[in-house]
Amino acid sequence: MRRLLGLALVAAIVGYLGWPYAVTIVSIEDDGAQAGTFDPAAYVDGVWERLESTIRDESVDLASILGAMRPNETGFAQKDELTTVAEEFGLMTAGEAHVYMVRATGTVTAVAADTSLGTLELSVEGYEGPVVVEVYIGPRIPSDESSIRDAVGFISFGDFREQTEYGKVASEINRRVSEALSSLDPAQLDGARIRLFGAMTIRTFNLVEIDVRQVSVVPLWIEIE
Hints:
2 domains, CATH 2.40.50.140, 225 residues, five-stranded mixed β-barrel, 28% strand, alpha+beta, 9 strands
């Protein structure tokens, strides 16, 4: 009854205002159908080639990035100092995260593959500082990881209707990364010399000092040399 009364009221208002102010009444269900359902796989299909080429062509040597960081004896660095590094080598997101497209060659010093969040530690050639480099090898990438999506610089939150769609893009990228890394044998990685391209994030929101004892890289591609 209330719905009928509401429709009658709308009709009366439209009739009173006249044609220039007429509106079309659409149900919530119809409106959702008109908007369309977001397909993250289709979106990533459309940008994947550009994403790969951007990281391969524009990545920065990880040793250079780490060498520019100056952590204190406890492994913390000042935010303003890290901001200078990000301005030179990477990007800063709206959420104040510092994101980098990176490339590195080095020796695997440890492999942790006892959980689905498998990682390796990498001794990066050209860097002898205190920062430990962790590289994800799967079969799962952390659900809050968005390094590759954010670091390439051409996938922006404003391109999407809502945060959920933006998040699904990061998840789809990570799914493809995990799929590509599934061919790696952890037993062959320990002690191996590898080359990689990928991305990493340093979160700085609402912080003055940032823990950089360890950084985590999401690899788009790993090659055992």
